[in-house]
Amino acid sequence: MVCFWPVPTPACSAPMPAMNAADRLEVFRRLAEINPSPRTELRYSTPFELLVAVTLSAQATDVGVNKATARLFPVANTPAAILALGEDGLKEHIRTIGLFNSKAKNVIATCRILLEQHGGEVPQTRAALEALPGVGRKTANVVLNTAFGQPTMAVDTHIFRVSNRTGLAPGKTPLAVEKALLKRVPADYLLDAHHWLILHGRYTCRARSPLCAECPVVDLCRWTGRKARLQGTGA
Description:
The chain is mainly alpha-helical and 235 residues long. The chain has two domains: 21-34 and 157-230, Helix-hairpin-Helix base-excision DNA repair enzymes (C-terminal) (Endonuclease Iii, domain 2, Orthogonal Bundle); 47-146, Endonuclease III, domain 1, CATH 1.10.340.30. The protein has eleven helices and no strands. The longest helix is centred in the middle third of the chain and has 18 residues, at 100-117. It is elongated and about 55 Å long. The two termini are 19 Å apart.
């Protein structure tokens, strides 16, 4: 049985059969037609602002992060400026976000490393990014893709769910799904696939109440529950 990590939604279910190449191509063709230039919903203007925003977004909503960074960035939006705030000063700007104590500690430590080891700039390699406090593989992938235009795949709960539920790229772990997507997403769509799948999972292929009747790729989806949802009897 596969649970849509980390929450079983709508319920734990057997793995969906994988889509074939033609259907995968059609999925992304349609998503690209609907939204030709997908963008992250986190607000930022520099790679450093994006790095901070993504670091703050763990177990928090983009809306909540944007409210906090709207207070923070006009005051401090460089490593030196945030270091000048100090950990306590930073906390005052981000305390509305979950886990703000540990996040403030990580951001301060990251700023110090950026200044000491990278000339105050955000590094453009996965290894260097993952060496920063509080930056894991997903965060590194977001920064590499969104700030630097690298064809990475940051598998969050939305992408994991969509990939498994639809059969686009089934996998038991986020890393397995990431590797499957990098292999199976058509090359012409790989750069933006991260954003399309997050937005699709956030607003259409939702966790507990997927909007199958509004889904532009429902006819390609392998999820057995879609028929019940289309008939209005699904949970």
